[in-house]
Design goal:
It is a single chain. This protein has 7 helices and 10 strands. A 4-stranded antiparallel sheet has the order 3-2-9-10. The longest helix is centred in the middle third of the chain and has 14 residues.
Length: 260
């Protein structure tokens, strides 16, 4: 099987810009349980995420100085300034994680994913477009498929070629595990109210909400190594407020990456 197409030196498959679902999110653990069983990419992409730009810029060589303010794997300070300038123009916004869909790659291959929806969905597309536009000269024209925000859950087969489970079956299974609904479509494409993971409407709604207030830069040493977060950039107005899991990780000594 051939690998990915070669890239110009300034781009790298080891680097990406993503939105990483916080570990404190109510759906995080359920999503990760599904991914560990069904997502063939979970080892190289261990975090539940929406990809904004991949591949991304090749990081500069690591500086030998131990007191360098730039952790290994981050793009250049100039690139970080350009990212920050775009993100400062966006206030935090909310998307909803309550709709399942799938990509049909071929007759025998598919990927089931959660599609971010709600009022913030258009802002997410706008954010990605502004970021991609800022780096258009470096990224080139791309593959022409455009941006379709998605949080991948796992791979399946085709509806008729069932070496792997067909996507409709996986969507029903995943919907049950995420929201307690055996039918992901439910006529409207949303989990039913008052059933499954929560009994009150407000609880069903709140657990589906995802506040987008920062983006993550991820990096891996080798193509088959797992991506790891090497830095975060806040959307405008957030400042340097730490998320709960970040603060706990820092206090326990597990936080090893730089927040920007």
């Amino acid at each position: 099987m051939s690998g990915p197409p070669p890239l110009p030196p300034h781009l790298s498959y080891k680097s990406a810009l993503i939105l990483s679902l916080p570990e404190s999110h109510p759906l995080h653990d359920r999503i990760q349980r599904i991914r560990k069983e069904y997502d063939s990419h979970v080892n190289r992409w261990p975090m539940a995420h929406v990809t904004l730009i991949f591949p991304f810029l090749t990081p500069p060589p690591s500086l030998p100085s131990p007191d360098s303010s730039i952790p290994p794997g981050l793009p250049s300070p100039t690139a970080l300034d350009r990212l920050g300038a775009i993100l400062s123009q966006f206030q935090p916004f909310v998307v909803r994680l309550e709709t399942l869909d799938h990509f049909q790659h071929s007759r025998k291959s598919s990927t089931v994913y959660i599609e971010p929806t709600g009022e913030g969905a258009e802002l997410l597309v706008d954010l990605q477009g502004r970021l991609e536009g800022e780096f258009r000269e470096e990224l080139g024209k791309g593959d022409g498929r455009g941006f379709h925000p998605h949080l991948s859950l796992g791979q399946g087969g085709g509806e008729k070629h069932q070496t792997k489970s067909p996507p409709t079956r996986l969507k029903s299974l995943f919907s049950q595990q995420l929201w307690g609904s055996p039918d992901p479509l439910n006529a409207s494409g949303h989990p039913p109210r008052g059933s499954g993971a929560a009994d009150e409407d407000v609880e069903v709604g709140s657990e589906c909400e995802w506040l987008i207030d920062r983006v993550q830069l991820v990096y891996r040493e080798g193509y088959k190594d797992p991506m790891r977060v090497v830095g975060e950039l806040s959307l405008g107005g957030v400042g340097e407020r730490e998320t709960e899991e970040r603060e706990e990780s820092r206090k326990s000594g597990e936080w090893e990456v730089g927040a920007i």
